[in-house]
Design brief:
The protein is α/β, with parallel strands linked by helices and 296 residues long. It has one domain: Metal-dependent hydrolases (TIM Barrel, Alpha-Beta Barrel), CATH 3.20.20.140. Helix content is 38%, strand content 17%. The strands form three sheets. The chain has a six-stranded parallel β-sheet with strand order 1-2-3-6-7-8. Helix 7 packs across helix 8. It is globular and about 55 Å long. The model has no long low-confidence stretch (mean pLDDT 96).
Amino acid sequence: MHKTVPWFFSVHGGHSKEFCDHADSPLEDIILRAIELNMPVYGFSEHAPRNHEKYLYPEEIELQKTPEILINSFYSYCNTLEILQEKYVSHITLLKGLEIEVVPPDNYVPFYQQLIKEGNIEYVVGSVHWVNEHMTDFSEETFRQAVSAHNGLENLMIAYYQTLKNMVVSIKPDIVAHFDLITCFLKPEEIPEYAPNLIHIIEETLEEVKKNNCILELNTSGLRKPIKRIFPDLSIIHKSAELGIPFTFADDSHNIHQVGYGLEKARELLLSQGITEIIRLNKSQQKISREKISLL
């Protein structure tokens, strides 16, 4: 990608090793890579801190992190990115987002609303990595444990989409992340035929996405997972298009090699389904705006 192409952007990713313990590249290196690729807009959406020890990631526990340390790191992320936004303003538009969690279930909404306000977060990426106290996408082991705890994959998937639906209603994120992330550790041949009650909760969740004016991302990180495809699957893309839900692009990068990863395939996927337009977040008078971008 040598020239600037309007659709070659990402609004979810930029996880950096300063602020994410399972990322590999410095934040500024990620920016420089996006500039090298002539990306017009790049959205950073660092993982939100969790305010209870129970929900620390395994690598955070190993590093003896605490919720207080994570919260302080969040404010450092906000300050650092603001400085770099100004530094590179003539080269690229950098957006300051936050990828929220859904834990603890009883108080994540007011906690994240406070962080969003205090950190001057420009947009919110809503995602689900925990279902009924179980991590679902950290490793294949934790995924299988979650399946077992829910007495089967179908029950886990239903609980996942119910959690996702509740998050959409409660937070009203700008972007709904990797909609069917719950499938990430399944091989393509392991995807079951969806039962009517599972299809029903998926459709109900999509209806809330539409009702709450959210954007659905095509997240290319699935190409790096056992599922070997972009999130979400074609059936969800079709239903979303039918409902008039807009799409956007996300590389979900955690290092410089993943910046821009798979975006051409995401474009080809949408075009193959007759979808010729996506939404790109941008800044207008220091406020986030939504731009319609042609894929043609």
